[in-house]
Amino acid sequence: MSDVMKKEDKSLPTFRPATDILEREDGFYIYMDLPGVHKDALVIDLQENDLTVSGKTSYPAPENERYSEMQFGNGEYRRSVSLSDIVDRERIRANLNDGVLELYLPRVEKTQPKRIEITSG
Amino acid sequence: MVLDFNTLYSPFDRFDKLFEEFLSPGVAGRKSMAYPPLNLSQDDDTIYVRAEIPGVDMSGIELTLTDKTLVLKGERKAEEGKYYRQERPAGVFHRVINLNIPVQRDKVNATMKDGLLTVALPKAEEVKPRTISIDVK
């Protein structure tokens, strides 16, 4: 049984999910299309500058159904994005909704300019 | 292809083409297909139409059932912001699925989960396969 499972795992096609990267006033946003991926099957890994997203779809395969058209199927999504230094790694947020992963990458907060009071002596 | 039975019509060619497109990594291989990608299947009682439409909830999808077709309409809106990269398809989509079997219109059921739309169309009673008992006299 386990051998069969392994074989099936290997034959899973890998897709690069369609990705949008955009900037707004409060930081950067990444959107990835990951249809069919449940939250539990999604892995987001940050190693140094590389943020890697991977996830497997788990479409059920009902036994008695006969297919006449098949334009998508089970597979694994995988994509890496390099982060620049201006991203605050501690505050990255991820949200998976309706098959779209939203990553929010805030900028590192700039040190506020500080006015130095001069007191007359 | 290894399997090539006929010069006139070969359903295998089509299948092989789809298969190759699945194997080729990247968006490029799938771009040639109409949006959204569809899976059509049926069992004895029901026709199933499945579509991958991530980022659109059920209220943003319009399903219309006519005598012979199921029409799937909707819109994927682009996010606001300054784009560095834009690969996700955006805009209005429209697909017409031919149903060659009559269905029970009032029992059609559509669900959406993780960006996967599933429409179950129960077949009309008269087309369901049934066993006819023959009395031997």
UniProtKB/TrEMBL annotation, chain A:
Name listed for the protein in its UniProt record: Hsp20/alpha crystallin family protein
Origin: domain of life: Bacteria
Residue stretches making up the SHSP domain: 10-121
CDD domains in the record: ACD_sHsps-like (cd06464)
Similarity section: Belongs to the small heat shock protein (HSP20) family.
Organism: Pseudodesulfovibrio senegalensis
Residues making up the signal peptide according to the UniProt record: none
UniProtKB/TrEMBL annotation, chain B:
Short name of one Pfam family: HSP20
Record domain SHSP: where: 29-137
InterPro entries found in the cross-reference section: A-crystallin/Hsp20_dom, HSP20-like_chaperone, Small_HSP
Family: Belongs to the small heat shock protein (HSP20) family.
Protein name per UniProt: Hsp20/alpha crystallin family protein
Lineage: Bacteria, Pseudomonadati, Thermodesulfobacteriota, Desulfovibrionia, Desulfovibrionales
